[in-house]
Amino acid sequence: MPGVMSFPIEENAVGMFTRQIEWEKRKRVKEAAAAAATTTNDGGGKRPTSASSSSIRLAYKAKEEGKVVVYTTSSGIVRLTFYNCMKVKQILNTHMVKYEEKDLFRSAELQTELRDRIGCTAIQVPQLFVGGQYIGDADTVERLNESGELRRMLKPYQVIQDKSLLETSGEKK
User: Fold this and answer.
1) Regarding the domain delimited by 65-157, which CATH topology (the fold level of the hierarchy) does it fall under?
2) Where do the Glutaredoxin domain residues begin and end (predicted)?
3) CA distance 149 to 4
4) pLDDT in tens, 58-81
């Protein structure tokens, strides 16, 4: 056809490049799945037993007594996950709670920590812990917030428990 140029070589190159990328993605997913399946926590190639899992949970509970910890990701690659992390942090901010955020995107060590704490190999964030006690994911936090139960759970962790202490002058007279 006059006026229409076709570049079959470039189309083939793009197709080859696309197939190469897809192949590499599948390879990385398989490697990650294999690595997750062989992750060791006790040096023996097995997931921890329920006895060691409970001791891990007790250790974290003692370490985080009086704290609110939320495991999140700062990666926006999966929008729903990123949105859920932002939603949980906003709920905590609305309740005026000081919390420690652990960003799994930046640390493989934190990913292993969360796997150990909740006892599963597949990680889904956000995950909330209050006083070392596992609360749940974004859906659970939202459900607890809607029912008013979250407010009761977070009351001891509020930064300012009495709003009447807030003054515009910044100093009490």
Assistant:
1) Glutaredoxin (3.40.30)
2) 68-135
3) 66
4) 888 888 899 999 999 999 999 999
Alpha-carbon 61 to chain mean position: 18
- Checking DSSP bridges between strand 100-103 and strand 68-72, what pairing results, if any? parallel
Residue 121 main-chain phi, psi, to 5 deg: -90, -30
d(CA 126, CA 88): 7
Do residues 69 and 99 touch, judged by C-beta distance below 8 A? yes
> Would you state the pLDDT for residue 114?
95
Residue type at 22?
A: E
**Distance in angstroms (rounded) separating the CA atoms of residues 129 and 101:** 11
Alpha carbons 163 and 96: distance in angstroms, whole number: 10
Kindly give the residue spans of alpha helices, DSSP state H, lying in the chain.
8-37, 50-63, 79-94, 108-118, 138-147, 149-154
C-alpha 10/C-alpha 26 separation (Å) is 24
pLDDT for residue 48 is more than 60: no
> Is the separation of the CB atoms in 64 and 56 below 8 Å?
no
